[in-house]
Amino acid sequence: QVQLVESGGGLVQPGGSLRLSCAASGFTFSSYAMRWYRQAPGKERELVAHINSIGSYTKYTDSLKGRFTISRDNAKNTIYLQMNSLKPEDTAVYYCNAVRGVGYEYWGQGTQVTVSS
Fold first, then answer.
1. Fewest CB within 10 A of the end CB: N or C in the chain?
2. pLDDT band for position 54 (50/70/90)?
């Protein structure tokens, strides 16, 4: 059974940091590119960051570049999203996504991140 389980969300003050984790199971993790998406209330889901299967290539939404860092540990079947200098507009549900082409895509349930004073 495929599972993607996000953790690490919560309430943080503006300017603070959080590290999200996504633990994967039930598929060959090291064969999949991984992504973080987010969805704010009333908005469409947007891509935050992408990392290839071996962790040698990353890509970020331009507006987040320099504040967020995606990484993965294939030995632990886990990806991470380090988020620094958080802003209220970063408030959203953050989702983990695994993809290996058409028909091979999985989603986690999401973790809430709230940035507020």
1. N
2. very high
pLDDT confidence of residue 101: 84
SS (H, E, C) the chain: CCEEEEECCEEECCCCCEEEEEEEECCCHHHCEEEEEEECCCCCCEEEEEECCCCCCEEECHHHECCEEEEEECCCCEEEEEECCCCHHHCEEEEEEEECCCCCEEECCCEEEEECC
The DSSP bridge pattern shows strands 111-115 and 68-73 to be: unpaired
Structure tokens given for 81: 């999203």
